[in-house]
Amino acid sequence: MQTVLFHSTIFGPIHSRRLGTSLGVNLSPDDGKICSFDCLYCEAGFNAQGPGTTGFPPRAEVKRLLEEKLSSMKAAGQNLDVITFSGNGEPTLHPDFAGIIDDTIALRDAYFPAVKISVLSNSTRLDDSKVCEALTKVDNNILKLDSAITPTMRVIDRPNSPEFTSEKVIDRIAQFGDKCIVQTMILRGFHNGKPVDNSTPEEVDALIQAYKKIQPAEVMLYSIDRKTPEEALVKVEKDELEKIAERIRKEGFKVMVS
User: Fold this and answer.
1) Do residues 180 and 173 lie in contact, with contact meaning Cβ atoms separated by under 8 Å?
2) Residue 43's closest CA among 11, 83, 3?
3) 3-state secondary structure 130-196
4) pLDDT, tens digit (0-9, with 9 covering 90-100), for 192-250
5) Is residue 123 a contact partner of residue 144, using CB atoms and an 8 Å limit?
6) Are the CB atoms for 149 and 206 separated by under 8 Å?
7) pLDDT confidence of residue 3
8) Tell me: the pLDDT tens digits for 180-195?
């Protein structure tokens, strides 16, 4: 069974196709997965693998490990573009997420003041005011919206909450406006023998309407790049992504394709 990607709290730096040279911060356990989604395409595997035994890394430990890494990178003259919160689950589920963001900003300012801080979030915690306040402090507040049509979203992202809908999450993302980047995974294939496809004209039309409501600083379109737990998914190639992006650009949005 495909399992977690990251076995440490701080990982990298790695080259991100969207963000550049990125130092990763994994706020989930290093031997399990904790997420409010169970996406068909998640590179860290399905939630069924379990949360592991190590739990959320304590805030003080995250700070210590991050400072050690930033200090050593600066001493070695290494390049860094971004500190990215990602990992084996949803980073905003960490109970000290807001405090960790404050710590990270202070460390960034001390060691690499030109570096940006990015959070890759699945948008499920935008009903928490502390999480939202923390997200307004980072440079790249990257929020997931894989489909503006609830039945499609629920097939692709498989949210834990039965009440989670595309309509609700679009409203919540819209509170950030141009202080957010919306990230959309485009894919097609099958799950449990049934087709799944968010690249259709109907899906793209619905996404465009959602982007119009949100008015994000940028839209990121991407597709599958690594092995996925649902093996019957198909990567949408870059030329097709560019055609979708062009439709969105015509509506006045900046779109990155990767």
Assistant:
1) yes
2) 3
3) HHHHHHCCCCEEEEECCCCCHHHHHHHHCCCCCCCCHHHHHHHHHCCHHHCEEEEECEEEEECCEEE
4) 999 999 999 999 999 999 999 999 999 999 999 888 999 999 999 999 999 999 999 99
5) yes
6) yes
7) 77
8) 999 999 999 999 999 9
